[in-house]
Amino acid sequence: MDAESKSTSYPIILLHISLYKKILSYLYPVQIAKASTIHNSVLELCLSNGQFQLATHDALYSDGDRYRPLTIAFNYLGAALYNVKDVLVLGTGLGSAAQILHAKGLKPVYTFVEYDEIILQWAMQTLHADVVAKSKAVCADALLFMNDHQQAHDMLVVDIFNSRVVPVFVTTADFLKKCRQCIKPGGHFVLNYIVLNNTDWDSVSTTIKSVFPNLTILENGINRIIVATV
Asked: What kind and span of H or E run contains 156?
């Protein structure tokens, strides 16, 4: 693990939300916490329709088990998810990947990698206690983390954004090849990408296909959700 990485154990102390706030959240989003960090000038933890949301000034990073990009990906994988026992998530948000799988009755082991420690703390405070108990939380830059990571997983989820922009390194052949190396044979790769420029997307999709030829690209508005099997 790179010197900049920090594996952290969080006590299972879930946020206590009053019944009043839970009811109110069905009328409009209720702000639970707000922060400013070196990575995100504006972070808001809200409760909306009874579930936690993580938002910046112009993007929604997590929306409980309603988070559309990963819901679409996991619904597509269907019964194949029952073979997933070990998941690596790069770009944790509030752990929507785990929330969706938990809602489906699945209980794999997780490694969560997130470079903003406040987001990671909020995730560990808002995820189900059963999920936290089977998770390792790592505060690290995903690129640096993957440079040294050797473990293979049944599924690797990449959901990394700076606001609405996917960092360039995420779609380089070198990074994608490293991701592939960390997926067990028959395992799955999931990548959430937002198309801001069609020309850029053409180039990006060509690179992804060169590393993960057995893939499907699912569309949800400007999101492209790549689901590949190794």
From this structure: strand 153-158
Displacement of CA 188 from its chain's centroid (Å) = 14
Assess whether pLDDT exceeds 80 at residue 59.
no
| CATH 2.40.400.10 assigned to 65-229 | no
Of 141, 151, 158, the residue nearest 212 (C-alpha): 158
Q: What is the pLDDT of residue 11?
A: 47
Indicate left, alpha or beta for 138 from its phi (over 0: left) and psi (-120 to 50: alpha): beta
Structure tokens at 119: 């987001």
Query: Mean pLDDT for the chain?
Result: 91
Question: pTM of this prediction?
Answer: 0.90
Comparing CA positions, the residue from 62, 20, 18, 15 lying closest to residue 40 is 62
pLDDT tens figures, 199-215 = 899 999 999 999 999 99
Measuring CA to CA, how many Å separate 153 from each of 13, 77, 125, 224?
Answer: 27, 16, 24, 23
For the stretch 124-171, pLDDT in tens is 999 999 999 999 999 999 999 999 999 999 999 999 998 889 999 999
Q: Is 71 exposed, middle or buried (0-12, 13-18, 19+ CB in 10 A)?
A: buried
- Asked if 224 and 193 count as a contact pair (C-beta separation under 8 A), the reply is yes
